[in-house]
């Protein structure tokens, strides 16, 4: 049985006060509505880490994650945050290779491998993102494109390390655009991803949670999450509204 995961990626949003309010509301709803069968991950901007960690304190199925980590272990890298710093603040997940990091910060597949390794060494579960831009989708080469991202960044991992990875498939043309992939498009890609992972890691890939991301909302999440290879979501915009985010969590 694969883990069902809904992760909220706040991106660069939220003052201290807003972050605390959002976290408290989510925590209260998850408790009051007795949601216990879904792993919930909150990925705020780094500076919110302590506040968020404190607020989720007593809830077994809500975890703190980072939106990124450095590909270096420590040192003179101004503005960066390492996997070990994140772990020391109580984070247990970290998003790696989000398309915004790949596009705006020119992160390469090789760099992402280093980030994944450092995350694992520090006990963090990487949520490894992959996904194609619109022109690749239109050219019909999206499967190959995504498989290459996975091969180049992850296929050097041992089986034991690979078993700890969560994948997020996010078609770039669906991120923040309001244009979601159809549930059939999501299932097709998730199945292709799983088959590709199995070509290297065999049965271990059956246990890999693959999340969908891209304009996921309360009204489309039930249909997307009903697909056999979709194990949850990586939620951007809708994770900033507590009611919407919790409704998405309840969409399985
Ligand atoms: O990390 C989350 C994704 O980029 C999806 O963002 P979105 O839900 O705002 O489209």
TrEMBL record:
Pathway linked to the protein: Carbohydrate degradation; glycolysis; D-glyceraldehyde 3-phosphate from glycerone phosphate: step 1/1; Carbohydrate biosynthesis; gluconeogenesis
Sample GO molecular function, one term: triose-phosphate isomerase activity
Catalytic residues as annotated in Swiss-Prot or TrEMBL: 98, 170
GO CC list: cytosol
Record's keyword annotation contains Disulfide bond: no
Keywords of the record: Cytoplasm, Gluconeogenesis, Glycolysis, Isomerase
GO BP annotations listed: gluconeogenesis; glyceraldehyde-3-phosphate biosynthetic process; glycerol catabolic process; glycolytic process
Residues bound to substrate: 9-11, 176, 215, 236-237
Pfam family, one: TIM
Superkingdom of the organism of origin: Bacteria
Functional summary from the UniProt entry: Involved in the gluconeogenesis. Catalyzes stereospecifically the conversion of dihydroxyacetone phosphate (DHAP) to D-glyceraldehyde-3-phosphate (G3P).
Assembly and interaction partners: Homodimer.
Protein name: Triosephosphate isomerase
Organism listed in the record: Echinicola soli
């Amino acid at each position: 049985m694969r883990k069902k995961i809904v992760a909220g990626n706040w991106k660069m949003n939220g003052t201290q006060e807003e972050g605390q309010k959002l976290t408290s509301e989510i925590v209260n709803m998850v408790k009051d509505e007795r949601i216990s069968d879904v792993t919930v991950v909150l990925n705020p901007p780094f500076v919110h880490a302590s506040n968020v960690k404190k607020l989720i304190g007593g809830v077994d199925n809500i975890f703190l994650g980072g939106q990124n980590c450095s590909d270096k272990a420590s040192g003179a890298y101004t503005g960066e945050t390492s996997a070990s710093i994140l772990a020391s603040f109580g984070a247990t997940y970290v998003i790696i290779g989000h398309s915004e990091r790949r596009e705006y910060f020119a992160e390469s597949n090789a760099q992402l491998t280093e980030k994944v390794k450092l995350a694992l060494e520090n006990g963090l579960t990487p949520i490894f993102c992959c996904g194609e831009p619109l022109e690749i989708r239109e050219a019909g080469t999206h499967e190959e494109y995504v498989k290459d991202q996975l091969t180049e960044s992850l296929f050097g991992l041992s089986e034991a390390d690979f078993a700890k990875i969560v994948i997020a498939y996010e078609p770039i043309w669906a991120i923040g655009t309001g244009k979601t992939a159809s549930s059939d498009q999501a299932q097709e890609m998730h199945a292709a991803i799983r088959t590709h992972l199995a070509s290297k890691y065999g049965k271990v890939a059956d246990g890999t949670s693959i999340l969908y991301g891209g304009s996921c909302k309360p009204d489309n999440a039930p249909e997307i999450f009903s697909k056999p290879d979709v194990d949850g979501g990586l939620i951007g915009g809708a994770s900033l509204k507590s009611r919407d985010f919790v409704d998405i969590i309840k969409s399985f």
